[in-house]
Amino acid sequence: MNAAVRAVVRMGIYLGCKVYFIREGYQGMVDGGDNIVEANWSSVSCIIHKGGTIIGSARCKDFRERAGRLKAAKNLVDNGITNLVVIGGDGSLTGADLFRQEWSSLLDELLKNNQITTEQREKYKSLQIAGLVGSIDNDFCGTDMTIGTDSALHRIIEAIDAIVSTAYSHQRTFIMEVMGRHCGYLALVAALTGEADYVFIPEEPEENWQKTLCDKLAQERNSGQRLNIIIVSEGAIDRNGDPITAEQVKKVVVDNLHQDTRITVLGHVQRGGNPSAFDRILGCRMGAEAVMALMEADENTEPCVISLDGNQAVRVPLMECVKQTKAVAQAMADKQWEKAVSLRGKS
Ligand code: F6P
Known about the structure:
- Helix 2 crosses helix 3 (66-78).
- 47% of the residues lie in helices and 14% in strands.
- The strands form 3 sheets. It has a 4-stranded mixed sheet with strand order 3-4-9-10, sandwiched between helices. A 4-stranded parallel sheet has the order 6-7-5-8, with helices on both faces. It has a two-stranded antiparallel ribbon with strand order 1-2.
- The longest helix is centred in the N-terminal third of the chain and has 23 residues, at 90-112.
- It contains 12 helices and 10 strands.
- The chain has 347 residues and is an alpha/beta fold.
- 6-O-phosphono-beta-D-fructofuranose (F6P) is lined by residues 89, 135-137, 179-181, 234, 271.
- GO terms for molecular function: 6-phosphofructokinase activity; AMP binding; ATP binding; fructose-6-phosphate binding; identical protein binding; metal ion binding; monosaccharide binding.
- Residues 1-293 form the Phosphofructokinase domain.
- Keywords: Allosteric enzyme, ATP-binding, Cytoplasm, Glycolysis, Kinase, Magnesium, Metal-binding, Nucleotide-binding, Transferase.
- Residues 1-347 are annotated as: N-terminal catalytic PFK domain 1.
């Protein structure tokens, strides 16, 4: 995300804007004070190679309530902020869309409470929003790739490659649990590129997976393979919608095939470290385009998400993407997996 933060700051300054950091995500916007500080060209020097985000991030309960959004609106007006770039997953972008929809009524309420003046009500009557999708899960509809996914994949692949050394030497089976929430993208691509023998993803729950898995592993070993790698997405489920855990998979392998089996849960290792070149350039392009979109917007412009489409940075309607992403989640919850995959489309 730092590459995107850097691009937003520098493109903004380049175009003559004042740019502010809002630290700690929406929490900083609600709390105001030192969380909102002006950025300059050098505040974003030397950050492109760092993982995470230098301005902090938080899951914010307050912003889910209107009272929290009211405080946030007051803080934006106090700081003279009229354009917002939001970097986050579907939760953050849904929040952004709601904030924008409520903007006018929030200002009315602030005016009624004498927290802003009539002049301020007029001056800040419109708030423009551009979203950037930052998530390792690649679970957001409307973009080919989200910022962070490629770096996470690099981390996962490095871990698989490292584990193969032990697996090969000791003829072991390794089960690796990877992140992705309810999206199997990380697991699937890691399995393909890490030459795994089996992968469990939420989008394709199998009937009788225990037998299919054991048959496949036995076949590999019988043909002379010394190791097996199984990737389990953290959101993997069976046909009943019940979770498939690495522990369950291990038990099936040990009980049926008596293979020497270990589990590795990658956890937050895959969410950190230096970003890949792809993610750095993606963040730069998305950040710059977000600023351009804001500069061209007026009060009638709908909030957009900057997305990657066929290697082009394009602007797509924020609400449509959020709606589509929620429809995928609903289809998954309804066990309509094929529908979920087709709704998710290219991403
Ligand atoms: O959405 C990104 C993600 O890393 C998921 O893959 C994972 O399920 C979740 O966040 C972990 O969240 P937390 O850091 O709050 O444990």
